[in-house]
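Long-time lurker, first post. I've been practising inverse folding by hand and with some scripts of my own, and I keep getting stuck on stretches where the structure tokens seem ambiguous. Below is the full token string for one chain I'm working on. Before anyone asks, I'm not after the true native sequence, just a reasonable design that respects the backbone. If someone could post their per-position residues I'd love to compare against what I wrote down in my notebook.
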């Protein structure tokens, strides 16, 4: 047992580090020399309180004469990313103090909009050389964590006053960390940190643009912005001056490892993942041992029966040989859901393999979403193939009809939900709303690529030989005796979803934090291990409950096997609801609808994924045991 645990721990360590030790193909490092221009780009304004992103220039910030959006892939657009140029520019390895960006005067409407965004805890996001701007925070045990972006401003009260005052963070102290080649003057950026300040800048005489000499900070006298300086209040018809400092620090971090500091894995995460793996693998192993021993005994006993009279006296799963492969009700719907599950399985598996091999880069913003979307489209080939083979196995002949259902039902439901959510985002004027051109692109991917691939797969599958059952099906259905309480379909299905849900709970928590709390998550090694454990758990639990069902002489296992493991999606949605009320501070109705809309899509996809795993495991199991006994 100790050896097994040691081997498992080594496997965890190897897989968890796999995604962290690779150079990312297709994302070439940028080499900088002294005095090379560094252009900071601005991303979206984000808030964990509203979950409604906005363009940086939707607020009265300093803006260049021409604003260009450099979001260049489908994933960035779907995520609401708006990566645009800015006036924050400086030169490599040339520290600067108190550089003026611009001066603005707020109108009444602009001041109120800034105050509203500060109340909603919006954060400013910037990007340099593909790295997000982060604020370093010292945690417990002197461990540094990084928070993405900086708060737009703050709210507070002066001593002795009950009036709430709003302040804007208008001075940034940038720290650019770089790794320098020992033999050349080439440097690569490995970190982009910031310390924000609110300072009410003052100056004498007329405003001369960037040449204005400020009294609150002066590069010539090296007068720095201090925390004790008067903060900049947000008031209508009052001017605000935006400034920044920039400093450079050499670091021992290599370019290929520059994301590792952001993707910090805590000891608690390690412990939770290893503990979950141990528990689930132990339970799955126990189930497998029990099943193998029990089945071996059953098959040996059945094969030793000498005559028909003894066979009739036996009870248990062998008596169902004439009914166990009787087609279920709503076979078309079952075939469609299994086919869609195969499509999701292929998408998730290939995406995770790409990730742990280092083919998905953290620097390639939106690359993960783009990859998953394209893989889902191309996996339509396997969806059509598996649907057609099952349809033919059940005696169906209308392969074109079942193919249309496979290609249209789930994508159609998702597209309708997506359009409704997108309309709500448009109503809020959020940058997260997907443009019409992108919606048109998605529709083209669906109808021009995915649907034909589903038809190709279905054609290939339907022309394959029919999957043969190991036993014949009787013409007259066998009556099903009364079932014990624990074999009640509703109860057994709900019980069956607990273990698969437990297998993914910890990683699901971190994924939710990444999506809704804007935290970093690139632990694809962990995620791949959890996915493997999920497969084993769904298969083990479904086979066990299927065996108990057959022993109770109930042969309606087709849908039950799908729903048993698929019921874990119910727990996923319930946990997402729990997470909403305990971890998030969303108050807006639109944000609430968006959250639950997306979580409904995720839960439905998880239902089809896990349901398909359980279905195929049970199909393999029943074919195996009924082909292992002698049927007179």
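-- Answer (accepted) --
I ran through it position by position. Result:
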């Amino acid at each position: 047992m100790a050896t097994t645990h040691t081997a498992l721990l080594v496997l965890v360590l190897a897989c968890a580090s796999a995604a962290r030790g690779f150079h990312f193909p297709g994302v070439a490092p940028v080499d900088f020399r002294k005095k090379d221009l560094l252009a900071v780009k601005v991303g979206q304004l984000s808030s964990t309180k509203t979950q409604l992103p906005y363009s940086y220039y939707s607020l009265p910030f300093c803006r260049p004469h021409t604003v260009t959006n450099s979001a260049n892939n489908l994933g960035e657009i779907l995520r609401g990313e708006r990566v645009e140029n800015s006036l924050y520019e400086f030169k490599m390895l040339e520290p600067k103090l108190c550089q003026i960006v611009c001066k603005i005067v707020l109108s009444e409407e602009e001041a109120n909009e800034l105050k509203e965004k500060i109340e909603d805890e919006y954060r400013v996001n910037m990007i340099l050389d593909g790295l997000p701007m982060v604020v370093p925070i010292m945690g417990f045990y002197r461990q540094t964590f990084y928070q993405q972006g900086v708060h737009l401003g703050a709210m507070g009260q002066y001593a002795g006053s009950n009036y709430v005052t709003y302040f804007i963070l208008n001075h940034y102290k940038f720290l650019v960390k770089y790794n320098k080649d020992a033999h050349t003057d080439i440097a690569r950026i490995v970190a982009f940190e910031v310390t924000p300040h609110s300072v009410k800048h003052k100056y004498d005489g007329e405003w001369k643009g960037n040449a204005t000499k400020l009294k609150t900070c002066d590069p010539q006298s090296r007068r720095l912005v201090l925390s004790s300086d008067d903060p900049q209040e947000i008031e209508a018809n009052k001017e605000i001056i935006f400034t920044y400092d920039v400093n450079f620090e050499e670091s021992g971090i290599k370019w290929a490892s520059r994301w590792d500091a952001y993707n910090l894995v805590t000891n608690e995460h390690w412990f939770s993942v290893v503990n979950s793996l141990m528990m689930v693998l132990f339970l799955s192993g126990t189930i497998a041992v029990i099943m193998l021993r029990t089945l071996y005994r059953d098959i040996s006993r059945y094969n030793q029966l000498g005559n028909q009279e003894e066979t009739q006296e036996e009870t248990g799963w062998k008596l169902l040989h004439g009914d166990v492969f009787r087609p279920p009700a709503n076979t078309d719907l079952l075939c469609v859901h299994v086919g869609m599950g195969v499509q999701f399985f292929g998408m998730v598996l290939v995406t995770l393999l790409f990730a742990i091999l280092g083919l998905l880069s953290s620097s390639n913003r939106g690359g993960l979403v783009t990859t998953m979307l394209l893989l889902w489209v191309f996996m339509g080939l396997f969806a059509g193939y598996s649907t057609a083979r099952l349809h033919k196995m059940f005696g169906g002949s209308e392969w074109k009809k079942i193919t249309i259902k496979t290609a249209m039902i789930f994508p159609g439901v998702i597209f309708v939900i997506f359009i409704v959510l997108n309309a709500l985002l448009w109503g809020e004027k959020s940058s997260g709303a997907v443009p019409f051109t992108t919606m048109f692109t998605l529709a083209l991917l669906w109808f021009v690529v995915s649907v034909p691939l589903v038809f190709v797969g279905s054609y290939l599958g339907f022309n394959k030989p029919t999957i043969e059952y190991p036993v014949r099906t009787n013409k007259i259905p066998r009556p099903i005796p009364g079932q014990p309480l624990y074999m009640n379909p509703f109860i057994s299905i709900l019980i069956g979803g607990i273990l698969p849900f437990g297998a993914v709970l910890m990683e699901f928590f971190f994924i939710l934090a990444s999506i809704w709390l804007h935290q970093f998550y690139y632990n694809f090694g962990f995620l791949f291990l959890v996915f493997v454990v999920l497969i084993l758990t769904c298969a083990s639990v479904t086979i066990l409950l299927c065996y108990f069902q057959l022993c109770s002489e109930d042969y309606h296992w087709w849908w039950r096997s799908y729903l048993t493991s698929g019921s874990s999606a119910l727990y996923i949605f319930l946990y997402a609801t729990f997470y909403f009320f305990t971890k998030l501070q969303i108050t807006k109705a639109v944000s609430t609808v968006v959250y639950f809309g997306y979580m409904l899509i995720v839960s439905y996809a998880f239902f089809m994924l896990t349901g398909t795993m359980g279905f195929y495991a049970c199909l393999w199991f029943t074919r195996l045991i009924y082909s292992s006994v002698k049927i007179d």
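A couple of notes from the structure itself: The two ends are 44 Å apart (CA to CA). The first strand starts at residue 37 and ends at 39. Happy to go over any region you disagree with.
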